[in-house]
Amino acid sequence: MSKLWSYMIIFSFIISVFTDRLSITAQSALEGASDAVTMCISLLGVICMWNGIMKIAEKSGVIAAVSYFLKPVTRFLFKNVKPDSEAGKAIIMNISANLLGMGNAATPAALTAINKLRKESDGRLENDIFTFTLINTVSVQLIPSTVIAMRSAAGSENAAEIILPIWCASLCSLTVAVIYSKISFKKSNRI
């Protein structure tokens, strides 16, 4: 990936030299860097706030309650994973964090879940790892806080208006991911 970015930067520089727009390219690069720093600082506050809320939710038992309601779902999705195992708990924590819009808090749980699934695997959990990866990629969110924060930082008057379309798109993606996972697992069992 770093090679791709390097080639794109070099190609852009060469084109700007040949089109006599080197000063415009340099100015745009500096403005882009400045805008990136401004956006990072504005997102930092929102991310810190949501991480704090997530910690409060964890300490107050909200995450445990969400996890309790997610156990039947995880039993359906992950046939070979016990919800009370270390992998099961990490999966539930990841899904809970994603539901609450905490993608950055969900990532460590996802990595833990994959590692635990691999450790607990004796060849029978490959489909569960595949299903988990698909579900984690879809990342259904009740509160898409990062997108709302980015829209707010960009000056949107109604930054939260995208919640319903995100729910619809996420549910459609989740449905396709689960169906694909179940179909591909059945096909692999026939072979």
Write a short abstract of this structure:
With 191 residues, the chain is mainly alpha-helical.
Give the topology, please.
Layout: H1 2-18, H2 22-60, H3 62-77, H4 86-99, H5 103-120, H6 126-138, H7 145-153, H8 163-190
Helix pairs in contact: 1-2, 2-7, 3-4, 4-5, 5-6, 6-8
Characteristics of this structure?
191 residues, mainly alpha
Write down the secondary-structure element order: HHHHHHHH
Overall mean pLDDT: 80
Helix content: over 70%
**Count of alpha/pi helices:** 8
Q: Mind describing the biggest β-sheet?
A: none
Strand content: under 5%
Indicate the overall shape: globular
List the domain count as a whole number: 1
Gyration radius, in Å: 21 Å
> How many strand segments?
0
Distance between the termini: 35 Å
Multimeric state: single chain
Structural class: mainly alpha
Residue stretches low in confidence (pLDDT < 50, at least 5 long) are none
Describe the structure in your own words.
With 191 residues, this protein is mainly α. It has one domain. It is 81% helix and 0% strand. The protein has helices spanning 2-18, 22-60, 62-77, 86-99, 103-120, 126-138, 145-153, 163-190. The radius of gyration is 21 Å and the shape is globular. The mean pLDDT is 80.
